[in-house]
Amino acid sequence: MDDFSAVAQLVGSLNDAQKDAVTAPPEHRLVLAGAGSGKTRVLVHRIAWLISVENVSPLSILAVTFTNKAANEMRGRIEQLLTMPVRQLWVGTFHGIAHRMLRLHWKEAKLRQDFAILDADDQQRLVKRLIKQLDLPEDQWPHKMVTNWINSQKEEGRRPDHFDDLGDFTQRALVRVYAAYQQSCESQGLVDFAELLLRAYELCRDSADIQAHYRRKFRHILVDEFQDTNTLQYLWLKLLVGNAGVLFAVGDDDQSVYGWRGAKVENMLRLERDFRGCEVVRLEQNYRSTGTILKAANGLIERNNGRLGKNLWTDGADGAPIQLYAAFNEYDEAEFVVNRIRDYLNGPHRHSDMAILYRSNAQSRVLEEMLIRARLPYRIYGGLRFFERMEVKDALAWLRLMRNRDDDVSFERALSTPSHGVGATSLEKLRVAARESASSLWTTARRDAAMLGRTAGALNKFLDKVDAIAAQVQDLALGKLIDVVVANSGLREHYQKEKGEQAEGRLENLDEIVSAARGFERPANEQEEGIDPLSAFLAHAALEAGEGQAAAGEDSVQLMTLHAAKGLEFPIVFIVGLENGVFPSMRAVEEGNLEEERRLCYVGITRARQQLYLSYAEIRRIHGVEQIGMPSQFLKEIPPECVMETRPRAGMLRPPSFGGAREEARFGGGYGSSGGYGNRYGGGSSPSGYSAPRRSAALATPAYGGFKLGQRVTHDKFGEGTILSFEGEGERAQVEIRFRSAGVKRLVLGMAKLQAL
DNA sequence: CTAGTCGGTGTTTTT
DNA sequence: CACCGACTAG
Which helix (H) or strand (E) segment is A737 a member of? Predict the structure, then answer.
């Protein structure tokens, strides 16, 4: 292919701004890419451009992302564009790249060759044990918090010895735990996620040779989702780019929603200062959403301060207005969503065209319940992933022990599952002895088993078992190896004995590890770099924990948190739970962290291609307590002309009108609620300009026979159902109920003989 | 050492 | 409400 057609092909389909970014001369660039503006496209085309037009060798390109998914997608699209595999190209996650460097230079990084990766869960266990060991009261030093603290120190590049002795008591204690933790990791050959990055950074910083090597090698470094980089990642990039490298960063400050775990949006601003000649390219044309949706998103995000500034536009149609539904409670809300989904399924839409987004995972339960009831297939993102499941982690611990007996974390796990007759007391004795002799549990056990008296026999049996399996397994291929370990460790038997519904799944998962291992193709570079298959597989398990929830190819409605939705898009999007205290979350409101929440809302809105639904519930059960919610302040920040309040039962639309007018609309039409809470609405408008759903004294009490909207009831003939609405008054009052099996029925309240559930 | 109960707690999550 | 961890009884 000659240059000319290559150029034409690469650039032909891009808009001007995209073209600018893709064909930029070899200088630093910050691409401010709004949602749906073709960010990945630009990144991929830029790499293809460098290779095919600028004749840059794929060897000199490093492309970094945050998730494996993004990395895989990027590699795939580059290869598609160039119509050839580009194996020499380094594409990966920050952690993946750091890991690769550490494997290559384990000696220089002062690691042992067989170091293993400690996942978040194992890390917490270890920290917890150390807190106990240091005699810190566990209730004052929650291991979760301490672990977070340690990780954030690492993310700022701080080691235990970087702390002056000046700190207060609290800090001194934290540093002590940090130091003990670090030492423990070192002696066990364990590296946690943050450590991967910090080690790789220190490696590049402190070894002149390695630094020179990578600076010479990577002439072009490209970074995706730059707004999510933390301090350490930024420093590492800066170090690698050096004086001669070229940085191409793509990101969107308005989509920075990971500040709470160390991401620094400020890195985008620093970029212009720290990287000389860094120009900014803005991608503002959106190819995803309707004009209305973009207008809503723009209007909302404008309220944030200190933005780099950007305004999304489209030359597509305005599309339908956003629909807002004010639900009575979370069940009513879920029912609304389910009904809309049903409507769409009658049209040209598939289940997977629709996504339900919420702020916190707990909100999924009611939605699931309603989806099940409606027999709609759905899929929840998030939750435990394959390699994080208990039985899978048990097996991994056994595998790790095969390679490294000094891995205490795995030792403890293997010793206790399946149980070997060595209990907490003996284990504790072992720990103490190990600490005193500064050796691993394994070594201590081999040496001092006798001190345990009666338990010594059981312990020795375990130790011999481990050695025997290791010997037996030595020359086996990965799949067979794992199969034998799972069988001979007694794990399979252990889970066979387990009863209950989950047991079957656990056994399946154990088998699944074996097939995962059989299908595990070692990445080409690792074969070259001489990593044994088991190590490669274990690293893979830690770095890429697998899909959350069943992948189940079935066409299904998508449920996920707003965070998990970042980077995705759907024709139809529901954002539920738009109440102050839910979204924005309570914590955010208290701490005044509203800007990040607003960005999260912006992310949610911009996921929608054609239709967006927003909803909130007036009453919601939170932690088992019914709470009265106020509409989210974000709702009033969205330009009102983009939104219609929808009353599905009456099939009419009206503009949203919070406060007084709304009261008319809502409660004048015959809705009401027997409440015990009517009088609590008493006051005037809230400071935000909303008023909670006030109702006049007259309307506050007309109990419809003591029934509430959304309430679950039973009927003699129709069975169980949910109250959807009331109409009329007194004797002739009618009630609309959705019955589980009989569908929606309209009944005269006085005649129906309903029973509350 | 397991099973069962009590009490405390309760965003967002990738690697 | 629902989960998890700690503690107690067998």
Answer: strand A734-739
Give me the CA A333–C1' B12 separation in Å, rounded: 22
Q: State how far the alpha carbon of A307 is from the alpha carbons of A87, A252, A292, in Å.
A: 38, 10, 22
Spatial distance between the Cα atoms of A28 and A220, rounded to a whole number of angstroms: 9
Where b means 16+ CB within 10 Å and e means fewer, A521-551 reads ebbeebeeeebebbbbbbbbbbbbbbebeee
Q: How far is the CA of A511 from the C1' of C7 (A)?
A: 35
3-state helix, strand, coil in chain A (%, to 5): 50, 15, 35
For residues A18 and A15, give the distance between their C-alpha atoms in angstroms, rounded to a whole number.
5
- pTM assigned to the model: 0.82
Task: Name the burial class of residue A138, with classes exposed (0-12), middle (13-18) and buried (19+) by CB atoms within 10 angstroms of its CB.
Answer: exposed
A746 in contact with nucleic chain B (CB within 7 A): no
Dump the DSSP string for A616-662.
Answer: EEEEEEETTEEEE-PBPHHHHHS-GGGEEEEETTTTEEE----SHHH
User: Which residues in range 603-632 of chain A are in contact with strand C, contact meaning CB within 7 A of any of its atoms?
Assistant: 621, 623-624
Which of A538, A269, A241, A215 is closest to A404 using CA atoms?
A538
pLDDT recorded at residue A132: 83
CA diameter of chain A: 89
Q: What does the pLDDT look like over A53-104, one tens digit per residue?
A: 999 999 999 999 999 999 999 999 999 988 888 888 999 999 999 999 999 9
The token pair at A484 is 């034998």
- pLDDT tens digits, residue range A660-698? 333 333 332 223 332 222 222 222 223 332 223 322 222
Region of A533 please: left (phi>0), alpha (psi -120 to 50) or beta. alpha
Residue (of A199, A292, A281) closest to A248 by Cα position: A281
Q: Does strand C come within 7 Å of the CB of A137?
A: no
* A30 in Cβ contact with A279 (< 8 Å): yes
Per-residue model confidence (pLDDT) at position A740: 59
A125 touches strand C (CB under 7 A): no
- Write out pLDDT tens, residues A604-639: 999 999 999 999 999 999 988 888 999 999 999 999
Q: What is the pLDDT of residue A522?
A: 60
Nucleotides of B under 7 A from a protein CB: 1-2, 9-15
